Amino acid sequence: MDGEALFLPSVDQWYLLVKILISFLAGALIGLEREKAKTSTLKEEGEAAEFPPGVRSFGFISILGLFSITIPQILGQTIGFIEFVRIMPVAITVLAVSIIVLYSAYRLLILKEAGITTPLALSIAFAIGVLIGLDRLIEAVATSVFVTFMLATKLRIEALIRFITYEELLSMLEIGIIVFLLGPF
């Protein structure tokens, strides 16, 4: 090595890299479900493939959420531009919201498809990235798994809704209220 210093990332740099990876994977999990749901729908209906945001798009939106928190923290430690550091989270959030709004407009105006689930899932992926940036890794991963589960069980939920009568729904709500009120005691 003759006096050469090896560049070894600091613990903070490794931690940031791990958070970037977790953020991408948490968003990509939701994107995987959206992609699989769309391809299975297209196969059933025999339509041309017009793919929604998928694994990469959801992963990148989640990383944007992470960066909206971590970049200002990093820049706040290295530069003195306080106003720039304050504006950065807003700028990144506006970028993510713009992407989601443009996608929604494209779906509605060009593809003539209504629906709020995918844009809402994109927003949740952004929020998951923010949670990871705030070091709430367990909450972020749990949210990602829960959202993916809820998206994947859509058909079963719809079948359950068709099966239940209104009277049965009211009975379930009454039982839920009783359990909620008496449960803590």
The residue fraction in helices comes out at over 70%
Q: What's the shape? A: globular
End-to-end Cα distance, whole Å, is: 69 Å
Order of helices and strands: HHHHHHH
Taken together, the total number of domains comes to: 2
What is the mean predicted local confidence, pLDDT? 84
Q: How many β-strand stretches?
A: 0
Gyration radius, rounded: 22 Å
Which segments are poorly predicted (pLDDT under 50) over 5 or more consecutive residues?
A: none
Provide a quick synopsis of the model.
The chain has 7 helices and no strands. By secondary structure, it is mainly α.
Which key features would you list for this structure?
single chain, 185 residues, mainly alpha, 7 helices, 80% helix, 0% strand, globular
Describe this structure in words.
The protein has 185 residues and is mainly alpha-helical. It has two domains: 11-152, no CATH class; 157-185. Helices cover 80% and strands 0% of the residues. It has seven helices and no strands. Helix 2 (55-78) packs parallel to helix 4. The N and C termini lie far apart (69 Å).
Please render the helix and strand layout as text.
Elements: H1 11-45, H2 55-78, H3 82-110, H4 117-133, H5 137-152, H6 154-163, H7 166-182
Helix pairs in contact: 1-2, 1-4, 1-5, 2-3, 2-4, 3-4, 4-5
